[in-house]
Amino acid sequence: MADHDGTRRYVDEVTVEPDPIERARAHALELGAEPVSAAVGAQIAVITAATAALNIVEIGTGAGVSGLWLLHGSPRATLTTIDKEPEHLAAARAAFADARIPPARARFITGRAGEVLPRMNEASYDIVLVDADEDGVLDYIDYGLRLVRAGGTVLIPRVLAGGAVADPVRRDAATTAYRTLIQETQASPAVLAALSIVGEGLLQLTTVTPDAR
Predict the structure, then answer these.
(1) 3-state SS string for the chain
(2) What is the pLDDT of residue 56?
(3) What pTM did the predictor assign?
């Protein structure tokens, strides 16, 4: 366990965060909108770049840190980001302006994801990032899998936060739900699943067509 903790610290220390994202992170912490770690941000940027994503949805804007990482990986992409907190969205708008993201590349939606997502076009997005409240995250992941095109990817950060999922003693509802999600997606023929232990953890689910197996 000590070796794993040391490796994680090393990854966190060597990850270089662009200045605008670093400033957005500082503002997020002031607001109490806990951002994804820089190590997870770098990983989602690589996934977005490798996907050559053009259309991205983010569930849980926070103060804009994860959104900036997503667009950092794919400079041609358009991001639709959803959050129920107007203060968070205002901070994200300011962070995007600071990073000189053209307004046409980001659409900010104020509202509850459960009300917004059913109105979005299915099989139309390359990447969906789900960074939402634990009590609704499983429903949002289900929506995300419907929103992405075949070969698109749903990204779920924080699945290993605090080590709860790996602790067999923990039986609370949120931990049990994450544990079940990880186990079921590993065995599912509908997705290619990978679990990264960088930062607070990142579950990656890429959809596949039946004839691809």
Answers:
(1) CHHHHHHHHHHHHHCCCCHHHHHHHHHHHHHCCCCCCHHHHHHHHHHHHHHCCCEEEEECCCCCHHHHHHHHHCCCCEEEEEECCHHHHHHHHHHHHHCCCCHHHEEEEECCHHHHHHHCCCCCEEEEEECCCCCCHHHHHHHHHHHEEEEEEEEEECCCHHHCCCCCCCCCHHHHHHHHHHHHHHHCCCEEEEEECCCCCEEEEEECCHHHC
(2) 98
(3) 0.93
